[in-house]
Amino acid sequence: MRGVGAILRRGAGDLNTRRDVSSWLARWFPRTPVRSVVALKTPIKVELVAGKTYRWCVCGRSKKQPFCDGSHFFQRTGLSPLKFKAQETRTVALCTCKATQRPPYCDGTHRSERVQKAEVGSPL
Ligand code: FES
């Protein structure tokens, strides 16, 4: 039978034991982000409303392309969506190949051989 002293000593030991949270952090917030994947090979036309904030999917894993659905977090990509505010109400073509040089807008990169040869769902 353990005495009160033993229990108190054990409790104090637990308090002094440093919890290792680094493995948990590395799992949910990887230091090296994974690469974006090609979601589609053509842009999606969307009507943006002036003053409204949008979150454009950077990782390419969203099921609600071209916008973020939180998949970047649940698949632990280490990537974040691009938040932007529409300056005016207009229809724009938003990139879904994730290779554009002027995100979130399409710049025609999806027509390149590099994107056209890539598999949907794989990185460039
Ligand atoms: S789901 Fe792709 S950035 Fe959020």
UniProtKB/TrEMBL annotation:
SMART domains: ZnF_CDGSH (SM00704). It comes from the Eukaryota. Residues 41-75, 79-116 form the Iron-binding zinc finger CDGSH type domain. Keywords: 2Fe-2S, Iron, Iron-sulfur, Metal-binding. One of its GO terms (biological process) is protein maturation. The lineage of its organism: Eukaryota, Metazoa, Chordata, Craniata, Vertebrata. Gene3D superfamilies: CDGSH iron-sulfur domain, mitoNEET-type. GO terms for cellular component: mitochondrion. This is CDGSH iron sulfur domain 3. Pfam families: zf-CDGSH. GO terms for molecular function: 2 iron, 2 sulfur cluster binding; metal ion binding. Its cofactor is [2Fe-2S] cluster.
